[in-house]
Amino acid sequence: MADIFREIDEEVRRDKAAQFWKKYGWAAVALAVLAVIGMAGWQFWQHQQNQAAAAVGARFEAALKSSRDGDSTQAESILKELAAGAPAGYREIARFRLAAETAKNDPAAGATAFDALANNGSLDQSYRDLARLRAGILRVDLVPYAEIKQALEPLATPQGIWRHSAREFLGVSALKNNLFEDAGRWFDAIVTDPATPQAERQRADLYLALVRGGPVTVQN
Prior knowledge:
- This protein is mostly helical.
- Among the domains are: 72-139; 144-213.
- 80% of the residues lie in helices and 0% in strands.
- It has 9 helices and no strands.
- α7 runs antiparallel to α8.
- It is globular and about 90 Å long.
- The model has no long low-confidence stretch (mean pLDDT 79).
- It holds the Pfam family TPR_21.
- Residues 19-146 form the Ancillary SecYEG translocon subunit/Cell division coordinator CpoB TPR domain.
């Protein structure tokens, strides 16, 4: 008797399934086709994106090679092209590299290029601060300590992610201007910061030795 009821139940389910397919089968087929098309489109888009990224990467490598080979004109030409039309990530990298390339021949112009990046509100704040740091470093040999202090001191706070380099070049600028007290303060901040990289700490120790020696007196 149980077998009969089970067969009847299965027959009813088959009838319901047939009725459902007859009524909604076209929709199921359409959804399946759309899913296949969607997956194919996604894979094609990914392939296109990967190809575009590879092409941009190759152009960027060409710019770096030109720079290493001493062909600044070619390097700048490629970097300007990428800075204008590359996808977002590469576009920012190209702008930073272009500013650095410009600075090789004209530090003041390079600093101005980094200023433009520092003032670019579309960039993440950490990158804007990096651009501000690079501009300040380029100006260490160009402007008085007061200007370097104004530019880099905000980056030298205990929480600043670029504080180590900012402190080092603040100290260098102060030392160049014979401001030994200021120089010692910045180099001390480097040495006493437990997060300072070892290489930078060693440089700061050397700078502190110069600070302790004081101004060099030339006797006639």
